[in-house]
Structures are given as C-alpha cells and as structure tokens.
Design a protein that fits this description.
The protein has about 300 residues and is mainly α. It contains 13 helices and no strands. Helix 5 packs antiparallel against helix 6, helix 7 crosses helix 8 and helix 11 runs parallel beside helix 12.
C-alpha cells in the first residue's frame, strides 16, 4: 500500500511543473497586456527605457570609437558621416561618449536608488512596526534630511567624501533614504493591524517573523514603484554633480561631464556638444518616469480590478 502511494505521488509530480510554468507565463503575459491596455504610453516608454539599458550594457560593442581617444585633426567638428554626433574640443567622438555615458549614469542611478530605497524601506519597516519613541526620533531625523534640497545634500556629501563613482553612489543614495522610509512606514502602519497579522501574532509568531514573513512581502509593490520613479531623479542628480565638477571625475565619460566640458569650450559652446548629452538625459529621465507611472497603475490595489 505504501509503495502504491509513493508511485502515485511520483507520477503526479512531473505534470505540476509545466502547469506552474504555464501559470507564471500566463500571469506575466496578463500583466503586460494590462499595462498595454491601461497605459500604452507607459508601455512604449518602457521599451525606450529597455533600449537605453541594453545600449548601456552593450556600449563596448555599439560605440563606433574609443570614447577616450583624441584626434587633434578633427577638433570641434560638427556632425558628419565620420562622426554622427560630431567631436569635442580634443577630437573625441561625441556619439561614443554619449553611449558610454549611459553606462556611467545608469550604473550610478541604479545602485544609488537600490541602496537608498532599500535602506529607507528597512528603516520605514522598523518605524512603522515598532512605533513609539523610536518612530518619533526617526521621523525627526528624516525631516532633517528632507530639509535640504536633494542636489545640495548630495553635493555636500560628495565634496566631503571626495570624487569617485562610489562616492557619488553613496551621496545620491542618502538623498533617497527619506522617501523610502516615509512611504514604507505608511504602508506598514496600515498593514500591522490587518487580521492576517493579528492571526499570526495570536499563533505566537515573533516580531521578526511578522515583519519579514507577513508584512514585508506586501511592501514589494510600493518599493518597485519608488525605485522606478526615483531612478530618473538619481540620473538628474548624477548629471548635475558631474556638471558642477563634484561627480565622477574625468576622463570617464558621463553626460554631466560632457555638458560641463561643452560650456568650458568657449563663450558660445558648439550646439552638438550641448544637444546630444542633454537629449540623452531628457529621454532617459522621461522614459523611467513614465515607466514608473505605468508600474504604479499596474500594481496599485485601487486600480487592480479595473478592466
């Protein structure tokens, strides 16, 4: 009898895997169709954001020239068949520098938002769950951080820590902590009194289990929305720091450094040295902001039941 039961269980397990995979694929396809139906503009800009990410990853392959190689015979040349985006003051190919600049900007923006939003989310989780004096002191600290403009705070931290990619990531990440803390704190405060949390507490679940097993998974959707929408802000701050000379130091190509170099080239900078880096910043920020709006509409429980 035992052998028969085991045989039945073994024979019943393999068919579950394709079904589970099909179910996951169906949910993903349904989510994509829902995004296309509710916000086709966000879906289109999501494809643009994906193309920008692919461009940053494949920069060594897509860049037609070395972004650091100078050509003193072709200095400050306008766009042509040899250099589609023209060249800068020392003959470097602007198109290659814009492509490689996407890697620098996206790397800094991604890791800064991931670090800052994660730290803020954990802080907000603790504040919302425990409350009391810890929550009061934490909110005063967050209000103090938010009293400074994001760019001013990031610039002060970057100047204090010194130039470098890691420094810029940390400086921008610190400016993202208050936003993650406040949003996740509000979500946790509304969740900790829910019946399923009270039931788990009644069964003897510890505070750690309640926080990380029952409450934290419900914060994933707000976390994703925060991370996506704040990525554009992080890219703007990174470009601003590079423009002000306290970001990633040369010769690493970044969009902010390129704009700063263009303004230092003369009283009237060549138009192509301003247009193409500025256009890259504008399109990237717009793409990630609109993608974040679409993800918010897709994951918002108040809109989830819309057809």
């Amino acid at each position: 009898m035992t052998t028969t039961t085991q045989d039945v269980r073994v024979s019943a397990e393999p068919p579950l895997l394709p079904g589970a995979q099909a179910s996951a694929q169906h949910r993903s396809s349904r989510a994509l169709k829902t995004l296309l139906r509710r916000s086709p503009l966000s879906a289109i800009w999501g494809l643009v954001a994906m193309a920008i990410v692919i461009t940053a990853i494949a920069a060594p392959v897509l860049a037609p020239n070395d972004p650091l190689k100078s050509n003193f015979r072709a200095m400050s040349k306008p766009p042509s068949a040899q250099n589609y985006f023209g060249t800068d003051q020392i003959g470097r190919d602007t198109l290659s520098r814009v492509i490689w600049g996407s890697r620098s900007s996206l790397t800094v923006g991604f890791f800064a938002v991931l670090l800052g939003t994660t730290l803020g989310a954990v802080w907000g989780l603790a504040c919302g769950f425990f409350g009391g004096r810890f929550d009061i002191a934490s909110q005063r600290a967050i209000e103090f951080m938010q009293s400074f403009p994001d760019l001013v705070l990031a610039m002060a931290i970057a100047m204090a820590l010194g130039a470098g990619t890691g420094t810029v990531i940390v400086a921008i990440a610190i400016t993202r902590i208050p936003f993650g803390g406040r949003v996740i704190r509000a979500v946790v405060q509304s969740l900790k009194e829910m019946p399923f949390v009270e039931a788990a507490r009644g069964l003897g679940a510890s505070n750690a289990r309640l926080m990380f097993r029952h409450i934290l998974p419900q914060c994933v959707a707000p976390f994703l929305i925060l991370a996506t929408t704040h990525l554009g802000v992080a890219i703007i701050i990174e470009a601003s720091l590079g423009f002000l000379g306290v970001g990633i130091p040369p010769p690493t190509p970044t969009w902010g450094n390129m704009l700063a170099d263009a303004l230092n080239s003369g009283l009237v900078p060549p138009w192509w040295l301003v247009l193409f880096p500025g256009l890259a910043i504008t399109i990237t920020v717009l793409a990630f902001n609109l993608l974040g709006d679409g993800i918010r509409d897709l994951l918002d429980p108040r809109l989830r039941g819309a057809v």
